[in-house]
Amino acid sequence: MTFPAPGATAPQPAGTHRPAPGPAADEGLARRLRALACTAPLHDLDARKANLAGEYGGYAMAEVALAVIDLVTLHMDFDTGADHEEIVARVLPRIAAQAPGRPAAEHERVARWVLEN
Question: Compositional bias (Low complexity) spans (predicted)?
């Protein structure tokens, strides 16, 4: 029985890409899948906005959620957490910029929905 020379690889057809062999490839893929899974709740917001009564197609809920996360992180108090009303007030301009022709009450509803979800 003969074995290929060390470092030699079998010829592959052009355009065929195989993942790197060994545990490093599996570990890298596992890390990427875990990171991707962390974004699922953000994507879920955009999917679930269709269930809201009203016209919310113009809002990028994942973007609003990232802004809310940033605001909560910046305004969090160790004793009480972030004030919901302050977060809603601060995120409203970003929401209004996404749908400038929509009423302010709708912008506020979007802010509260994202904050609660």
Answer: 1-16
Report residue 1 as tokens: 């029985």
Residue carrying structure tokens 């596992």: 30
CA dihedral of 82, 84, 87, 93, whole degrees rounded to 10: 180
CA dihedral 34, 91, 107, 88 (to 10 degrees): 100
The model's pLDDT over 45-97, given as tens digits with 9 standing for 90+, comes to 888 887 887 788 889 999 999 999 999 999 887 888 899 999 999 999 999 99
Count of Cβ atoms closer than 10 Å to residue 111 Cβ = 23
- pLDDT of res. 19: 59
Instruction: Tell me the C-alpha distance between 36 and 77, whole Å.
Output: 29
